[in-house]
Amino acid sequence: MKTVRNAVGRDIPVELEGRKLKPYKGLFRNPPPKRKAGGYFGYVKPGDKKLLASLEDAIHSCKLKNGMTVSFHHHLRNGDYVTNLVMNTIADLGFKNITVAPSALFPVHEPLVDLIDQGVIHSIEGSANGPVGDAISHGRMKGLSILRSHGGRVRAIESGELKIDIAFVAAPSADDQGNSNGMFGKSACGSLGYAVADSIHARKVVIITDNLVPYPCTPISISADYVDHVVEIPCIGDNQKIVSGTTMIATDPQKLSIAQNALDLMVHTGIFRNGMSFQAGAGGISLATTKFLGELLKEKKYVACFIDGGVTEHVVDIYKNGNCAKILNGQSFDVKSIEDLISNPDHVEITPNYYANPWNKGSLVNILDAVVLGATEADIDFNINVNTHSDGRLLHGIGGHQDTAVGAKLSMMMMPIYRKKNAIIRDRVTTVTTPYQAVDAIVTDIGVAINPERKDLLKALKGSPMKVYDIKEFRDMAYAQTGTPAEPEYKDRIVSIVQFRDGTVLDTIRQVKD
Amino acid sequence: MKTVRNAVGRDIPVELEGRKLKPYKGLFRNPPPKRKAGGYFGYVKPGDKKLLASLEDAIHSCKLKNGMTVSFHHHLRNGDYVTNLVMNTIADLGFKNITVAPSALFPVHEPLVDLIDQGVIHSIEGSANGPVGDAISHGRMKGLSILRSHGGRVRAIESGELKIDIAFVAAPSADDQGNSNGMFGKSACGSLGYAVADSIHARKVVIITDNLVPYPCTPISISADYVDHVVEIPCIGDNQKIVSGTTMIATDPQKLSIAQNALDLMVHTGIFRNGMSFQAGAGGISLATTKFLGELLKEKKYVACFIDGGVTEHVVDIYKNGNCAKILNGQSFDVKSIEDLISNPDHVEITPNYYANPWNKGSLVNILDAVVLGATEADIDFNINVNTHSDGRLLHGIGGHQDTAVGAKLSMMMMPIYRKKNAIIRDRVTTVTTPYQAVDAIVTDIGVAINPERKDLLKALKGSPMKVYDIKEFRDMAYAQTGTPAEPEYKDRIVSIVQFRDGTVLDTIRQVKD
Fold first, then answer.
1. Which CATH code is given to the segment(s) B50-241?
2. Does this model's pTM top 0.80?
3. What is the ipTM of this complex?
4. CB–CB contact B354 A40 (8 Å)
């Protein structure tokens, strides 16, 4: 297999399963084409009905064929019922070789593994977390898995690289014309931002709702002029399961130390200031950092110009205390954030195009001051892995990791130096998810390491009480506890491609040995 | 010149100034192509600045060239300063042969006539009302004028028929990234819906604001991810002049009788009912009808499912009385409607794509129960003219006339039988703006005439107290007062094309004799 070494030192095949791959060349080295792919017209006349009696009717009406691509959004996260329902219906109807393009998958989507085994699902373009990722790692899926960031996914959709035949949109509220939002109904999930690009660009769009309301369903998050069909089902999900393990605040002392160090780093680099912006996240450490940041903003009587994210009650509390002017909501992680999204005019739903697409006319991440991000591994070059565990198994998606790391003035990667017998900070990450060029700081419980390219940050920290380490020191401390980590054992087959947000390839993931 | 007779009996050139023209063939006889034209990517990096020091800088940065197309929206109506400012700047910079694509023009845009005479403006694709229309009628513009409805304009933009090089968006509030809305600021105009398609599809988008606010400017009506540049100027307009002659309620008895007859027609055809929908408009008669409808809804304790439009205080009053569930706002006509748009979650901004594009996946007009529309003339075939006066001069745009006439279950054309010495109802309209196939009823002060194709309406009215006339009776009454109208005297040259909303040609407008 002919390969080319990319700008993070990984050897990338020139071609794989008929796809020509572009190696990653560095930040902003793959400019967009001039024009986006055009969406699809419709031709709906007065009296035409969009509301269909069943999902089967919608699938037939949209003319699904073997080999086509269907998409889903993940706002209901581990409480989503719609992806499994639609894919099982597609399987029952006898379709094969379908490409699934979810914005993310969760443990609840384990039933897809059977459909992978049966050949109903040929490939997955989108985050393949948990059991589905594990199945992919074990070589059970016939086709490739393509991993993209939130911004990269929208870029792929807008450019026509990812062609969606049918977008299935789980909608907590919808009317019979297809206007939808996630704010009301028993399955309310807040923002529906991830589904917006799908609705604009897919050949066909099907709204699936358990809360059909009179026209017009407002606010209009998904707009009727992009919707082909509406189907009512008894239940689209369990919104109590939006909050999963990844959305509960950290309590153990090590994690709280990491969060405190992130806050201190913002303070001592001057990023913490009146009018700053911050992206909050879902992980326990990130939630703790958000909470600490809120407390310091309050103490200093500062007002952040905006906090975006992954919105939780902690962000809402900062707003309610008067320490944040606006909340920009790409995902809602709890009931309090949904309630606030409904009632607070300063709390606004945003799309991943608005937030992170590297090929649009300017995304939110470009003007972000600080972001805290998780990692499964970091290496001494400052590359970050969030996709695979150290045994080589694909278990997590990219999310907004690359996008915010590139955009934010201070991107902080939060991690312990080691976990049990596993060195987190090491010579070489198992998989490069976010390239070192985008990573500003590694934040651990004992101190921070700063990317040597960020001389401005190093200068700012001189003389500060911040404990700044050389990243190799972190590696050495880790190895002292865990020994030098062994490379995972792989088979030859590449099962997954890790794209950079601009569509170039950062790394590949190979099938693990059983 | 080779012509083809279209489905309203008008002879349409097969080709005109290099454009191939499709004759109008009837409602829904010109289906869309499969795909829309794609918008334009950008490539904005962290630290890039969108805010420019001057309009000249923005024009240069957008690489304007002779022969290109620039667009404007008309939410500030007769109070708009931006169109004249930009076009004068373009003239000062020495550009020629520019096509202007406004969503509408008003008397305030009279200075454009000089630019037409100077050859700066070559053609106008968009409503050319008042003095500019008059100049076009007198053959002063070198190129063609293309008239489109609101829905037709969006269709043309989305299909690539109307290619906009630079969209200039007057924004009452904007941030330095380009997020904009019309709701706040000294020049607040409410909705910015007309500019949304321009912002999504134009090659370059320039926000012009007199109220630069901290990021993020919310609500986000125009989204930063579509904006190339932002320019701050002292004043974008005078929002006191949004309310012009066309947005004041009728007071004279004849007009009030027309409005009352429209209400009675809704009642006796069963269109007036609990849960009905209604489009309100800006004309004096339309405003009176809205007011009367509100009073009757209140009396009967009915709740309209929505009222869209052209939102005025009269619509807001209906909502506040509890007689309307939602307000869908395509244009805001007064301060009260803007205040309500800001504060009322049931009052929602909509775009003309959502509202009226015949080629999308279903527009609002398709589910509209009733609309009241004005006219300069109607003919005995039920064709309607709103573009020209009976002397042949182009003085008005199409607005949503065709769109709502096609979509609404009951489209009512409101007019007196004659005005002074001019027969309004006549054998043949000077110009066909809305084809008879879309017109349900002519409503005058003395009674109504029903399109004979609407046998259901005629049946419903049998035995009702409604005075139903044969339309020829109206013509006869008119001619008895005015004499048989003379055809306007024209020169040979065609100066304007009246498109149907689907892009086919309903009629042409010829140069008038001086």
1. 3.40.1080.10
2. yes
3. 0.97
4. no
